[in-house]
Design brief:
single chain; 414 residues; alpha+beta; Elongation Factor Tu (Ef-tu), domain 3; OB fold (Dihydrolipoamide Acetyltransferase, E2P); Helix Hairpins; 3 domains; six-stranded antiparallel barrel; four-stranded antiparallel β-sheet; 8 helices; 54% helix
């Protein structure tokens, strides 16, 4: 009987030992399975401060807090009335400079050449008349006996010159009357205007001849009445001739320059004036562009600190826009678990706003030093622990994740 009881006791001990071993083995197996790291935080987004590059009064605000905006969308406008006025003036200056350049580069028009040739002809006629008067003054001074005969001849010359003036004036009146029957834009008007210009020059030449004849007559009468004035008359006549000769040279030089065209220096100066006017216009366009303030990114307006009518100053924040294309979740991992985290590691992120949905992210930053748990962690016990800050970047192309959303991160595990 004792032998049987002993065998039963041994069997019970062996059975108990097997049960304990099985439990230890099972726990060991369970402890070998990697448990996921879970941590919580708040969704964050990179914020861009919207500022003005120039000062101005705010006349329009086109976005409000909480409103999604796209890249290039206008957020605010500043008053541009003064710059628009200045731009109109600058645009007119460009047009004027370009017109001047075109005129300088263009060849002389036929009517301009005709006027210049007429000026040369008039100067030649005045010079020739002055030379005749000078020669006559010398002859009269050297032969006083012919004075009366020359006075009579001079009177006849004055009468003929006067008649020539009247005839030239009549031809001019006819030319003007005929020209004015056509519109200034017609071909006939241009032809008749050319003829009228020639008639005007003919009147001027005839008048100059009459003036010369009258002056010659006056000189003869003066010499008859005062013989001592003969030498003075000769000197005066010579002076007039020299002046008339110089006028011919000036008129001929003007005609030659017109036929040759503008000098390279003149063209270069005209081109420089065009570039200067265009640069001024471009500067105003840049300044006007700065008065329209646009969003540099696709995002969400998180704050608006100005109102219509206020003055925007350069560098001062007018709005803030959060970049929602990708957001960040910052979590804090205890020292004894930081070895479970690696850069580039995949992270599942869950938010209360989208239950049963996991957003995919990756670890982009691990702090190099441990720190005390931040004060915004809920429990006092957790705040005295040493932790490492870890940042998780989450692509957010649909902008469903918003700054301030609480989120849970799951790292590792099967």
């Amino acid at each position: 009987m004792k032998r049987v009881l002993g065998i039963i006791a041994v069997v019970i001990l062996l059975a108990g030992a097997g049960t304990v071993g099985f439990r230890w083995y099972t726990q060991a197996q369970a402890s070998d399975v990697a448990q996921p790291l879970e941590a919580s935080g708040t969704i964050e987004a990179e914020t861009i401060h919207i500022t003005a590059e120039t000062s101005g009064r705010i006349v329009e605000i086109l976005a409000d807090e909480g409103q999604p905006v796209s890249e290039g969308q206008v957020l605010l406008r500043l008053d541009d009335s003064l710059l628009q006025t200045q731009r109109a003036q600058a645009e007119a200056a460009v047009a004027a400079a370009q017109a001047d350049l075109a005129q300088v580069e263009a060849k002389a028009r036929p009517e301009e050449v005709a006027v210049a040739k007429a000026a040369v002809a008039q100067a030649v006629a005045q010079r020739d008349g002055a030379k005749v008067a000078w020669e006559n003054a010398k002859k009269t001074r050297d032969n006083p006996q012919q004075l009366n005969a020359e006075i009579n001849a001079a009177k006849n010359q004055v009468a003929l010159a006067k008649l020539e003036v009247e005839m030239a004036q009549a031809r001019l009146a006819d030319a003007l009357l005929l020209r004015d029957q056509y519109k200034s834009t017609s071909y006939n008007w241009r032809v008749l205007n050319f003829m009228a210009t020639a008639a005007e020059e003919a009147v001027a030449e005839a008048q100059a001849a009459q003036d010369g004849a009258q002056q010659h007559l006056d000189n003869l009468i003066a010499m008859r009445d005062n013989p001592l004035a003969a030498d003075a008359a000769v000197t005066a006549a010579e002076g007039k001739y020299r002046v008339a000769e110089a006028a011919v040279n000036v008129a001929q030089a003007a005609l030659d320059a017109l036929l040759e065209g503008a000098m390279p220096e003149e063209i270069a100066m005209a081109q420089a004036r065009v570039r200067q006017a265009q640069a001024s216009l471009h500067t105003l366009d840049v300044q006007l562009e700065q008065l329209t303030i646009k969003s540099p990114i696709n995002g969400l307006v998180t704050s608006k600190v100005v109102h219509v009518g206020e003055i925007a100053t350069p560098g001062a924040t007018l709005m803030t826009v959060a970049d929602l294309d990708q957001v960040t979740l910052t979590i804090y991992v205890p020292e004894n678990q930081i070895n479970m985290v690696a850069l580039g590691q995949a992270v599942g992120v869950e938010v209360d706003s989208f239950p049963n949905e996991v957003f995919q992210g990756e670890v982009t930053y691990i702090a190099h030093r441990a720190e005390f748990t931040p004060k915004n962690v809920q429990t006092k016990e957790e705040r005295v622990n040493m932790v490492f800050a870890v940042k998780v970047r989450i692509p957010n192309p649909d902008h469903r994740l918003k700054p301030g959303m609480p989120a849970d991160a799951i790292i590792g595990g099967d």
